[in-house]
User: Fold this.
Amino acid sequence: MQTEARVGVVMEGGQRAISSGHGSIATVDGATRSKGQHQQHRYQAQIGTVSQLLSGGIAGAFSKTCTAPLARLTILFQVQGMHSDVETLKKASIWREASRIAREEGFRAFWKGNLVTIAHRLPYSSVNFYAYEQYKKILHTVPGLEKYQNNASAEISMHFVCGGLAGVTAATATYPLDLVRTRLAAQTNAIYYRGIQHALRTIIMDEGHLGLYKGLGATLLTVGPSIALSFSVYEALRSYWQSKRPHDSTVAVSLACGSLSGIASSTGTFPLDLVRRRKQLEGAGGRARVYKTGLVGTFRHIVQNEGFRGLYRGILPEYYKVVPGVGICFMTYEMLKMLLADISANL
Assistant:
């Protein structure tokens, strides 16, 4: 989730550059722009949007694939407290769990559930970007807000609100794939779900259509504060860095600040992410329900049975995933954006 926030910043900047280059109507001595020029600008803007959508989606999918082993370890640690005794929890460690996966499930098992992750990431990025643009258009039409259009603080606030709404929209639209990904990744030796389609059918048969949205409330509560922390920490760090070292590479500054903001966001929202993962696994594989109360009751149950540290079970592999994940995502996005820009320029 932190990675998507970073990509969102870059995509927004690219779209703003496109809009500034093609959004204004050039006039020479009062003459209006010709129809052919207008169509050409529209075509170039569409190419720019498509290239950003492709770059962001592919970068996110590639980043998720590279960090899939750490993502699966995070999920396995997050759900350990549901059906494990105290002694088992005390013995848990990253190396011991990684060794168990390699020994019992094979090396390929580190990427278990990654196909559905990619299937989820591509539409998620597209919906997120499209919704962001639509929410911006809606807010710009709200009476009384037009006087703040040239105000920098107001623009940042508007982008913050639109980004949060877009994240909630994208998370809701693609949530069943996120749930399936969690359940596939959480499987160890006992295989209950044999793939994406089988998992979707089985969940509907066992738990009804609403079963595809288990844990949605906790997910939406995670998306908002996660993006809030990501954007605020990222912008604050980047502004401070550039004020002290204005000649440093923009890519390097964005990479470093993005990684630090990802760590801050993960720390602040990890308990909510842990709860949503466990809610997603309620009743999976025919198991009895563990948490029979709402969100607050689930938090209370975890603290009572596992202590406060239980809310941060799996935080270390999450940290290990954030830094390389953001770096790979930025690198892939920038490379693809330049490549697609060259291709579109030659069309």
In short: The chain has a mean pLDDT of 75. Residues 187 and 193 are 8 Å apart (CA to CA). The first helix runs from residue 2 to 22. The chain has one domain: 2-12+37-345.
